[in-house]
Amino acid sequence: MKQKPGWVLPNLKEAQKRTKEETPRIDTYIIPENARSMGIGHTYFISTYGCQANERDSETLAGIMDTLGFEKVEDVEQADVILINTCAIRENAMEKVLGEIGNFKRLYRANPDLVIGVCGCMAQEEGFVERLLEKYPQVRLLFGTHNIQDLPSMLYSVMYEKQRVVRIYSREGEVYENLPVHRFGKHKAWVNIMYGCDKFCTYCIVPYTRGKQRSRYMDEILNEVKELKEQGYKEITLLGQNVNAYGKDIDDSYDFATLLEEVAKIGIPRIRFTTSHPWDFSDEMLDVIGKYDNIMPFIHLPLQSGDSDILKLMGRRYSQEEYIALYNKIIERIPHVAVSTDIIVGFPNESDEQFQHTLDVVNYCRFDNAFTFIYSPRPGTPAAKMEDSIDMETKKKRLALLNKTWNEHALERNKAYVGRTVTVLVDGFSKKNDLVYSGYTETNKLVNFTGNNIKTGDFVQVYIDGAKTFSLDGHAIQE
Ligand code: 5AD
Ligand code: SF4
pLDDT digits over 141-173, tens only? Predict the structure, then answer.
């Protein structure tokens, strides 16, 4: 890759390293003097792709931009700075981002001072950065997941020193506390409890793009949750690539069950968490979830494959039987729990029989929701080096059959709600119809319902009249 003085380019080999060194923790955030108030009179727009970790990172980007004096706009045409926070989990995410940057070319031509910055997981990928630097001169700023806190000085160099800045560290990473945050939700908030991932599932790019597992100290998390409660937030979601492993990188006195219990005691009305790896899902976690009414009875439990041999090749460290045993334990111990999952079809050389094993598990668990994907080789991961004898057409057919199967289960699960009254936390008007409100049940079911004078952030009792595959319909029970 072409190198220029001052640039730091990504290196996937470097990003893979894991040492025994303690995670550096940085508690104070200082903005360089020359960059302070540099944003006054300027606007910014953020476009976010991918998972909740990215959503939360965008809130930090927005928090920093606000601190610099920039004003957030919802219309990209009005923006002086555009930040694109990208996702690298599958190839189609990459194509979408390149399409979006291509569209911004027009804005750049009209306003050569426009700053287009690209960050997030894709910036950690060597191939993507190479392509971007060569073919997209309008991108003036490129920074990685470990460089967010440097935004003020990077932006200063771009805007006032007219430089093209590329700063992408490939390292294990640190934990930053007290970075500014501009929360996009008024009644629901994300709370990071850990960063990175050390699981190295063979298909997954995340351990490379987000560094090693680094848990936040419990006190820091609890203080953030207390603050959110004081600010009136109704729901928080604890975030980590694998929350069950929370604290294992600090010492043995830390674990997710303890954290969850301490968070529950603070008394925020709704607590969710994501994602749980079946591998280290403890009994203590189930006890805590069952004990506190404000921990929502909803578990996202990625299956990935229902075939034990494929699971081994994926590096998932559980078998079909172990997954089912855990599933059974969850539904026994948490009354009315809903379970969702992630599934990949078409892992290299997956046979019809192996795919059938995935369908078998799906038919057994009858998931409430599923996120299903065709395997996408990620450069630098072990699975990307595997030869694959399965053609794309077969993979697409499997995906369609899988979707048909889980959709039927989801509809069936939803029908069981008809005639019941559920508590819904209101998000606002329904996307399709502004006479209809929408929100989520405790079990994370989307509900569209009618009612009067209802506000976003209210808890409402809703009688369910009808069920669809992806949502429920109902009416509010009001005096
Ligand atoms: N190809 C397809 N799906 C993937 N996922 C992660 N990596 C890949 C990949 N290379 C899916 C997994 C994970 C979800 C977030 O994305 O199912 O749980
Ligand atoms: Fe990727 Fe596996 Fe880590 Fe999840 S647990 S982020 S699938 S490596």
Answer: 999 999 999 999 999 999 999 999 999 999 999
> What gap in Å lies between CA 155 and CA 150, rounded to an integer?
9
Number of H helices, E strands in the chain: 13, 21
Return the residue whose CA atom lies nearest to atom 4 of ligand 2. 241
Ligand nearest to C-alpha 342 = 1
CB 340 within 8 A of CB 368: yes
Measure the CA–CA gap between 226 and 297, rounded to whole angstroms: 22
Pocket of ligand 1 contains residue 375 by CB under 6 Å? yes
**Rounded Cα distance, 468 and 31, in Å:** 50
For residues 254 and 232, the model is more confident at: 232
> Best mutation site among 241, 317, 371 for ligand 2, i.e. most ligand atoms within 8 A of its Cβ?
241
On whether the CB atoms of residues 439 and 427 are closer than 8 A, the answer is yes
User: pLDDT of 16-34, one tens digit each?
Assistant: 999 999 999 999 999 999 9
Burial class of residue 415, CB neighbours in 10 A (0-12, 13-18, 19+): middle
Residue of 320, 415, 406 whose CA lies nearest to 369:
406
Closest Cα to residue 366, out of 342, 340, 344?
340
Q: CA–CA distance from 29 to each of 92, 107, 155, 233 (Å)?
A: 36, 33, 16, 25
Ligand 1 pocket residue status of 146, Cβ below 6 Å = no
Q: How far apart are CA 322 and CA 455, in angstroms?
A: 44
Half-sphere exposure of 259 (CA within 13 A, CB side): 34
What does the alpha-carbon distance between residue 309 and residue 202 come to, in Å, rounded to a whole number?
13
Ligand 2 center to 172 CA (angstroms)? 16
Over 80: is that where the pLDDT of 434 sits?
no
Any idea of the CA torsion for 122, 302, 362, 367, to the nearest 10 degrees? Answer: -100
Rounded-to-integer distance, Cα 463 and Cα 297, Å:
19
Task: Pick the range with the lowest mean pLDDT from 58-62, 120-124, 450-454.
Answer: 450-454
Which is it for strands 437-440 and 421-429: parallel, antiparallel or unpaired? antiparallel
Q: Is 342 a pocket residue for ligand 1 (Cβ < 6 Å)?
A: yes
d(CA 167, CA 159): 16
DSSP 8-state assignment for residue 8: B
CA of 347 to the centre of ligand 1 (A): 10
- For residue 349, what are the CA distances in angstroms to 305, 355, 394? 13, 10, 11
Q: What CA–CA distance (Å, rounded) separates 9 from 369?
A: 39
pLDDT, mean of residues 221-245 = 97
As to burial, measured by CB atoms within 10 angstroms (0-12 exposed, 13-18 middle, 19+ buried), residue 30 is exposed
Q: Pick from 419, 418, 417: which is nearest to 444 by CA?
A: 417
